[in-house]
Write a structure and sequence with these properties.
Blueprint (H helix, E strand, L loop, with lengths): L1 H4 L22 H35 L15 H4 L5 H30 L5 H33 L2 H23 L9 H9 L3 H26 L2 H10 L7 H15 L9
């Protein structure tokens, strides 16, 4: 019945709409959103392309090496080369090595202040502090940090033995530097007390900072060497490394050095 009552001449358009409006104008917001999305994707692709180009240039110049950052010589990546369970330990030891590096620099600055303050052994202290900075920094990295890094990375017993030996020697060196015997290149405790007693406050403050640095890195290394010794030794034993297998470890290391040369010390292979 409704079919007969409807007005066949009635307009199907609402009176609120303008029949002369351009229907394409309603699609403009949609087009803007799509354009923004496409622009965002293009920017993301350009950023990724720049990163890939930078990485390719780095590999072309330095290979995979990424450390030290200012002049890459070796590849160092705890998150990639160290098993996940052992990463916190290696990260803490690396941070302690960085503290040692900073302490060596501070110790040299403090020794300069000793010389300026008129210390009778200031020249010897400054010369010794400069020698420590250029000798102890690389040797500590090579002889106790890198061995424990390699031990967890390669699971070779010889590296654990290196760490136990040279790590212990480093602890003795830290105690020696904390004491601060005059003319030894250390602005440690004795030197600092002497500077305060003579009224040289600037030299005393710098000596205090250096002494704190030696103490922090020394106690930190002692903690991970003694308290963390069980973790290291348990991992060392769980992996099947015993003193009886030391000869096999040496032969394995010699074979690796023969096939890869010095790179064997800084690579996974």
């Amino acid at each position: 019945m409704s079919e007969f009552t409807e007005n066949p001449f009635a307009s199907s358009h609402s009176l609120d709409t303008n029949p002369f409006d351009d229907p394409s104008s309603k699609q403009v917001p949609q087009h803007d959103a799509r354009f923004e999305d496409i622009s965002r994707r293009e920017q993301d692709l350009e950023r990724r392309e720049r990163e890939l180009n930078q990485r390719a240039e780095h590999i072309r110049t330095h290979g995979r090496n990424n450390w030290p950052p200012f002049y890459p010589l070796i590849y160092h990546a705890i998150s990639e080369e160290i098993p996940e369970a052992s990463r916190p330990l290696i990260t803490r030891l690396y941070q302690l090595w960085l503290v040692l590096l900073g302490t060596l620099i501070l110790n040299m600055v403090a020794c300069i202040s000793l010389l300026i303050a008129g210390s009778s052994d200031g020249g010897k202290d400054l010369g010794g502090s400069i020698g420590y900075m250029f000798i102890i920094a690389p040797l500590s990295f090579l002889l106790w940090y890198r061995p424990i890094y390699n031990g967890y990375m390669k699971e070779q017993a010889l590296y654990y033995y290196f760490y136990f030996f040279f790590g212990g020697f480093h602890l003795l060196f830290s105690v020696y530097m904390i004491i601060g015997i005059p003319s030894t290149g250390s602005a440690g405790l004795i030197q600092t007390i002497q500077m305060y007693a003579q009224g040289h406050w600037a030299a005393g403050i710098l000596g205090t900072i250096a002494t704190v640095g030696w103490t922090v890195q020394g106690l930190g290394n002692a903690f991970y060497y003694r308290q963390g010794h069980l973790q290291i030794w348990n991992h060392h034993s769980a992996a099947g490394h015993t003193m009886d297998k030391g000869a096999d470890a040496i032969l394995q290391a010699k074979a690796e050095l023969a096939s890869h040369g010095a790179k064997a010390y800084f690579t996974r292979g």
